[in-house]
Structures are given as C-alpha cells and as structure tokens.
Amino acid sequence: PMDEYREAARKAKAAPMGAILADFAKENGPETYRDDQRVTLAGIVAASKTKTTKNNSLMAYVTLEDDTGAMELLVFARTLDRCGSYLKEGAAVCVEGRLSVRDEKSPQLLADAVRPLGEPESASTEENKKVEKLYIKLPTAKSPVFEKIRRVFLMFPGEQQAVFYFADTRKRLGASCIIHPALCQELTELLGAENVVVK
What is the pLDDT, as a whole number, of residue 129? Predict the structure, then answer.
C-alpha cells in the first residue's frame, strides 16, 4: 500500500523505519540516530489502541509501517485530541516526533504532530479549520447562560472556530476553541442538543 505514497514520503523527508531499527540494533550502538532525536516518519497505520494513563488522560499506541519496517508510536492526550482522527487503521500519515529508546525495547516515536500523508502542512491545518466549526444558538446575548458558556470556553483554548448565533438580534459572534467532546457535552447540557452543532 505504500507504493502510491513513496513520493509524498520522500517530500516529507521521512526516515525509513528499517534504517532506524537497524541503526539501534548495531552491536556498538547507533551511529546515525540517537535517543530523543526529532525525526519524521511516513507510513500506513497498521494498528491503533488507546488506553487510559495513570493521570486519567487518554493515550494511543499506534503501529506504523513503511516498506522497510514497523515502529510503535506513542501518542499522548494533547496530540491525540488534535490528530486522533488521522490515526485510523489503514490511513497513510506523516508523523513528527522524538525517538524514545528504553532498555531492551525497540525504538518508539513520541509523536507530537500527525497529518495525512501527501498533504502539505499548511493545507492540512487549513483543512482542519475548514472541516469543523462549532455552531451554538442562544436566545439572546444577555442570557446568563452566555456568561457560563464563556467561562466554559476558557477551559478549551484552541485554534478551531466556534460561531455563536443570537436568535433575538440574529447576530453572530466568532470565537476560537478546541472542539472537544467534553466541551460539546457541556454545551449540550446547558442548551440542548438542537442548539449545539458541529459541522
């Protein structure tokens, strides 16, 4: 499946996973790569499983494969919130992060950015912004609920767009946030599902 993505992987300057694994497997230790080095990988998601960490946030273990080998990615909550939708099995992705080499384990990658393979960075973040907006309908800007919602928004800072619509004046107000399931749930409880729409 990597055939059609080879060119995109080359453009992304992705390191071959086989080369990283072989380098760390050398008897005298690695020559090209080192623990905590930043690298870019490109490949197909072979498997992905999430688990809850000790401090109750979500993380994912993702197996990424290219023509040369396979590596495990560790994706922590912050990256998972932003990029989790790209980490479906069978998806072709470009991943940036830091190598992590622990004891006798194979090298892993601590991922801090994931984007679909073949999309330039800027286009993919533009895409994200276009993809989803959060629409919130309120009876009036003077509503006490609006104050509550503004406080809730402070807990979800981010780059995605939200649009408030006030029924009485028909005015719209833009805001930015991260469109997180917990935020949507909170808004739904305050306003009812029909007044909170992500599209």
Answer: 44
State the Cα–Cα distance between residues 102 and 120, nearest whole angstrom: 32
Domain boundaries, the chain: 3-127, 132-198
Report the alpha-carbon distance of residue 20 to residue 32 in Å, rounded. 8
pTM: 0.60
Query: Is 38 exposed, middle or buried (CB count within 10 Å of its CB: 0-12, 13-18, 19+)?
Result: exposed
**Mean pLDDT over residues 90-117, rounded?**
92
**Residue 184 phi/psi, 5° resolution?**
-60, -40
CA angle 139, 158, 126 (to 5 degrees): 100
Answer yes or no: is pLDDT of 32 > 70: yes
The alpha-carbon radius of gyration of the chain (Å, integer) is 21
The CATH architecture one would assign to domain 3-127 is Beta Barrel (2.40)
Any idea what the Cα angle at residue 82 is, between residues 53 and 3, rounded to 5°? Answer: 105
| pLDDT at 1 (0 to 100) | 55
**Alpha-carbon span 104 to 119, nearest angstrom:** 35
CB contact at 8 A, 63 and 109? no
Q: Which whole-number Å values give the CA distances from 150 to 28, 93, 163, in the listed order? A: 57, 35, 12
